[in-house]
Design brief:
Length: 249
């Protein structure tokens, strides 16, 4: 990356010279500092899934910050699926420990996620439509196996990300369109992020499994319009995530 420069006149040599521009360093937002302190607190106390964090008022007093800053930190953690806010009941850890992602990564993902979801809708709705026409018995068996695996994963308390990916891969294979399959491959990393973002929403894994079953039913029935509509409904549901309601400011 080219470095920004500015020119000034050297008082000794009498000529203009270029020097790198010195810009003010950005400071972490106050709520980012609160997040970092909460992470240290959870690590020091051995916090585990289900443990309750100190009340907002206590955190504000102990950290010497406003309750607004504490609330912003809690919202950022909630968006990442790390805590659950029970109205009137406090804030609880959803995982062992507290390992939030960098603020910049959240902002970046919030910017590109809508475009990825639009691409998923266009590609995967068409793939489901084609799969309903071209699927074989082997394809149906793989789709059913993916559904069973996701059901078992959710039963173990997992998100079922790998099983979700397996299901969508089976639908893509059943569509037998190498160009669309290549597009899906090129977007694999972004799709994985959108999947992860969706499945960590409370109650979403079970909801996603139900939507997958409706897609599979339409494909098995050789109903392309119903398959495309079911996939469209599913991808729209994937887009209903807390991140898109979150404002970095």
């Amino acid at each position: 990356m080219d470095q920004c420069v500015e020119c000034h006149k050297d008082p000794v040599k009498g000529v203009y010279v270029e020097e790198p521009v010195l810009r003010p360093l950005s400071r972490p937002k106050l709520y980012e500092q609160v997040v970092a302190s909460l992470r240290e607190h959870v690590a020091a106390t051995g916090g585990r899934a289900g443990d309750k964090l100190p009340p907002e008022r206590d955190l504000s007093a102990r950290l010497g910050v406003s309750r607004t800053s504490v609330r912003q930190a809690i919202v950022a953690l909630e968006v990442q699926g790390l805590v659950e806010v029970r109205h009137g009941g406090g804030v609880y850890l959803l995982r062992d420990g507290l390992d939030p992602e960098p603020w910049e990564a959240m902002v970046d993902r919030r910017q590109w996620l809508p475009a990825v979801l639009e691409a998923r809708d266009a590609l995967e709705s068409k793939l489901a439509e084609l799969a309903a026409v071209r699927r074989t018995d082997d394809d149906l068996r793989e789709i059913d196996a993916a559904l069973d695996a996701m059901d078992e994963a959710i039963g173990r308390g997992e998100y079922g990300e790998a099983e979700d990916r397996r299901f969508h891969g089976a639908v893509t294979a059943a569509a037998r369109n190498p160009v669309l399959a290549r597009f899906m491959s090129q977007l694999a990393d972004q799709i994985a992020e959108s999947r992860r973002e969706s499945l960590r929403q409370p109650g979403r894994p079970a909801q996603s499994l139900g939507q997958h079953r409706r897609i599979a039913t339409a494909i098995r029935a050789a109903d392309p319009a119903a398959a495309a509509d079911a996939m469209h409904t599913h991808v729209r549901s994937v887009g209903r995530v807390r991140l898109l309601d979150w404002s970095p400011e």
